Amino acid sequence: MRLSRYFLPVLKETPADAQIASHRLMLRAGMVKQQAAGIYSWLPLGFKVLNRIEQIVNEEQQRAGHIPLLMPTLQSAELWRESGRYDAYGDELLRITDRHKREMLYGPTNEEMITDIFRSHVNSYKDLPLTLYHIQWKFRDEVRPRFGVMRGREFLMKDGYNFDLTKEDALHAYNRHLVSYLRTYERMGLQAIPMRADSGPIGGDDTHEFLVLADTGESEVFYDSEITDLKFGDREIDYDNVEQLQGVLEEFTSRYARTDETHDEAVFAKVPEERRRTARGIEVGQIFYFGTKYSEPMGATVVGPDGARTPVHMGSHGIGVSRLVGAIIEANHDDKGIIWPEGVTPFDVGIVNLKQGDASTDSACEALYRELKAKGLDPLYDDRDERAGAKFATMDLIGLPWRITVGPRGLASNTVELTSRRTGESEELSAEAAVNRLAEIYAPVKAAAFA
Amino acid sequence: MRLSRYFLPVLKETPADAQIASHRLMLRAGMVKQQAAGIYSWLPLGFKVLNRIEQIVNEEQQRAGHIPLLMPTLQSAELWRESGRYDAYGDELLRITDRHKREMLYGPTNEEMITDIFRSHVNSYKDLPLTLYHIQWKFRDEVRPRFGVMRGREFLMKDGYNFDLTKEDALHAYNRHLVSYLRTYERMGLQAIPMRADSGPIGGDDTHEFLVLADTGESEVFYDSEITDLKFGDREIDYDNVEQLQGVLEEFTSRYARTDETHDEAVFAKVPEERRRTARGIEVGQIFYFGTKYSEPMGATVVGPDGARTPVHMGSHGIGVSRLVGAIIEANHDDKGIIWPEGVTPFDVGIVNLKQGDASTDSACEALYRELKAKGLDPLYDDRDERAGAKFATMDLIGLPWRITVGPRGLASNTVELTSRRTGESEELSAEAAVNRLAEIYAPVKAAAFA
């Protein structure tokens, strides 16, 4: 993309009402614009990051064998009366009346609707196991929306639902989600720690929240420091292998790690003192096993191998897709701006032309742009007629992990400058070598994508 | 995808309340499920088609230089009061009140919001031309929703908005949309004819609707038969070339083609009688130039080259993404089911194993499945333990354009059977030759995708 043809409305001033770094930086970098309290437009740069996150979530869900569909944003109140949640949910549920005075709501979650889909179409245990998921906009009418997209009202979530014949099978589905989530967050450059949590209005016994450590996190968390040494890495996973997934669950959840909701001082005291940590965390996902809580009242049953009808065991599993954009920034920024991990960056590399309008720098930049694209990379070329300082400041603010600077002095010795946004270190090398280096850097990101 | 692990709830019986073919077939093929009047869940097969259509729209918009962003589904009433549409829009506007008694609405279109984004961030004519678009769910509270996704209440639309300094520039943007739409529909296997139309509640003078001819269309249309001979084809387009695009506009709009809203019997009478056609059409898109209708009341101005502030010239341009799924089926089906064009089919090819459980047919099917995937094709393998007749009926119903049948008799002579859904013709050939044939058939589809 050429910046002269893009829409990147960066702000010079820091918005006064933005209290946390991600909110400030998303406004300054022209990623979002607030349209109403807790409701945002995703401007092109922000939307691009949102798409990359969504794509990683999709790939990892499908790798785990989960099947995408799409439920609508509006639901009928009728369905929520069946589960008893229409009256129980409180003021955060946005209730709507249509022209025919029918009661509806803007879905904050989809347990009822997916259970309705299941009971309408599935009849036999032979069609299990089944996990369906969607990535759809939700609404939660927060009394005081704040922190930008971190606590918005209209938000994008991936929510998946498993249907299984037995509790045992459903716990395997739970483990599939845990493992796929570990992998998902690592691809985004995040360490998200599964912590024992409280089930809240979804219900159920088994539940883990995934938390990213950050000073601005909304939850206080308590954990054994050994847990931050765990890496999922590129291990081979067979999602049908019950023992393997149970092993991963145990590896990642056997150490103490809890939010303030479930924290137990007596248990925590057994962790060796030098490994006890207290910090703050941002919740970026949660998985639940809740058995027959919805299937029983709503009649979601299957005929089992013995010919008898039995309610299915279910769980639900969410990833906060729009919230992740904020969480990633909270964990990756400095005073100058955002520092995107390679896995989610909106553009792979920025090209800064130091002397726009000069025939030789212009043509060197154009050639570089083409060669990067030929390698499957996605460059943002700052071809505006602006001072170098302004171009650097924009690149630092929007946080592309790599920058190539092209100027007459370097070109005289056939070099360009490749700079890492994270370390600030620069290297002079030929344009060809710079392209090859970037292709190498991004090779693991491309390889992680689902074929 | 293996069918035994997919969620494809086909119905044996024709739903009684579905009046048109696309609605019946989408229900029978397990593509959608109605959740409330005019509100649907997109089950996995339907969602896959929806995604393919969305991807083509995205690719062609970006090819034309238009920039994606995403506006929220809910909007504040305040914004619509500025344009005067809050009171004018009538009962189809779904009005919502939040917990703080603020008036909101579920957006049926986004002229106001995009104008607000523009006026907040753009100040100079140097930032023009600019065209922003999004693909987002909309709501129109139809008094009598019907025909499935063809006239639903919650629907997916691509809506794009151009901002230009002059009327002339805005008409070039209009032409960019016309050309990109012709290309978009052709990639979906549709002939959509641009017809002079009425602007309705969007406003403006210049507008064309794109109509697909089909007996079940909601509009009566009148046209010169020469227009159906026009093909966009794979011509090279430079979207910055004003004359070239004007030439395409003239080529595709100079012949008589109007909907009942703008039909003029006296002008139609001048078309030679043997070329006069009356038919029905389904509207799948519309483009508008409306000048300063929104920019003036909402203060969307730029500083021009002369230093004076001037309201920008705008247009809006829509493609009915969810409606297209229905329109494509209306134009492509027979008594047995859907017949997908290659450009939008949910799976490229179906594999039918005639003797599931037989070691040699199973392994031949598995090998075929892997080889198709290795060629970048997306097969659906019916690996269920079902009779051949049931497998064929399912494949015909869901309408994959190609089917490979694998059975013991063919394998004895090293052949499989490749069948066209459209013609019903079959050919016996080696598995390798079948894979190569399919790769050839789909090569133009893959080549049309935006690199």
Word description of this protein:
Chains A, B: It comes from Paracoccus pacificus. Chains A, B: One of its GO terms (molecular function) is proline-tRNA ligase activity. Chains A, B: It catalyses: tRNA(Pro) + L-proline + ATP = L-prolyl-tRNA(Pro) + AMP + diphosphate. Two copies of one chain form a homodimer. With 451 residues, chain A is an alpha+beta fold. Chain A has two domains: 3-338, BirA Bifunctional Protein, domain 2 (2-Layer Sandwich); 349-448, Rossmann fold. Chain A is 34% helix and 27% strand. Chain A has helices at 21-28, 44-63, 77-83, 85-88, 111-121, 167-187, 242-253, 265-268, 295-298, 321-331, 359-374, 388-398, 408-412, 431-448; strands at 32-36, 39-42, 67-68, 74-76, 94-97, 103-106, 130-139, 154-164, 192-196, 206-213, 219-224, 257-259, 276-291, 301-303, 309-311, 313-320, 333-334, 337-338, 349-353, 379-382, 402-406, 416-420, 426-429. In chain A, the strands form six sheets. In chain A, strands 3, 7, 8, 9, 10, 11, 12, 13 and 16 form a nine-stranded mixed sheet that branches. A five-stranded mixed sheet of chain A has the order 20-19-21-22-23, sandwiched between helices. In chain A, strand 1 and strand 2 form a beta hairpin. In chain A, helix 1 crosses helix 10 and helix 2 packs across helix 10. The two termini of chain A are 25 Å apart. The model of chain A has no long low-confidence stretch (mean pLDDT 95). Chains A and B meet through strand 1, strand 2, helix 2, strand 3 and strand 4 of A and strand 1, strand 2, helix 2, strand 3 and strand 4 of B.
